[in-house]
Specification:
Helix content is 31%, strand content 16%. By secondary structure, it is α/β, with parallel strands linked by helices. It contains 6 helices and 5 strands; from the N terminus they run αααβαβαββαβ. A 5-stranded parallel beta sheet has the order 3-2-1-4-5, with helices on both faces. It has one domain: Vaccinia Virus protein VP39 (Rossmann fold).
Length: 179
């Protein structure tokens, strides 16, 4: 385990936890999520409250289950899933915010349940299939944060048949305008 990260990167991971995440975009995308300010805005967003409420409502379905949080950011949804009774939560974050998420998880006493991984979803190898996936992947105009591909890959690779996706659907309403 690298002493510099404080992360729970166990030996059963296929990726190298000492290597920085690959960033093929080359546009500073992951780096833009390394700063607390952007996460403060997301935490204040009403969507976060909606996710927390949904996780609380779905707690009977999460109890004793393995959950994956794709793009965990600060780890708030991962901790909510742990509070809802998940057996284990794998919280994956590609940006250096993973280091903060790991600290938040540890200081709030959830390290036994929430395992934070610093890496891209496309590269992380989880120790097991999961029963549920949670991800706050929506941005401006629904697709702005460009995380949907990672969430769909996680679903196809890691979600058990019949598993739960949160959210499981989204709608985009468009209205043509003429200026």
């Amino acid at each position: 385990r690298p002493a510099t990260t404080g992360m729970d990167n166990t030996a059963d991971l296929a990726y190298n936890p000492d290597a920085p995440p690959k960033r093929p975009r080359g546009d500073g995308y992951f780096e833009s999520y390394e700063y607390v300010g952007i996460h403060e805005e997301m935490l204040k967003c009403r969507r976060t409250d909606a996710y927390l409420h949904a996780i609380e409502r779905l707690s009977p379905l999460l109890k004793g289950k393995a959950v994956l949080d794709v793009g965990c950011g600060t780890g708030i949804l991962a901790i909510a899933c742990a509070k809802a009774g998940a057996r284990v939560v794998y919280a994956v974050e590609a940006s250096a915010m993973a280091l903060h998420a790991d600290t938040i998880v540890n200081r709030n006493g959830w390290a036994a349940t929430v395992k934070v991984f610093h890496g891209r979803m496309e590269e992380v190898q989880l120790p097991e299939q999961v029963d549920a996936i949670v991800s706050e992947w929506m941005g401006v105009f629904l697709l702005y944060e460009a995380m949907l591909d990672s969430v769909l890959l996680a679903r196809d690779r890691w979600l058990r048949p019949g598993g739960l996706m949160l959210p499981r659907r989204a709608r985009l309403w468009l209205c043509p305008l003429r200026a």
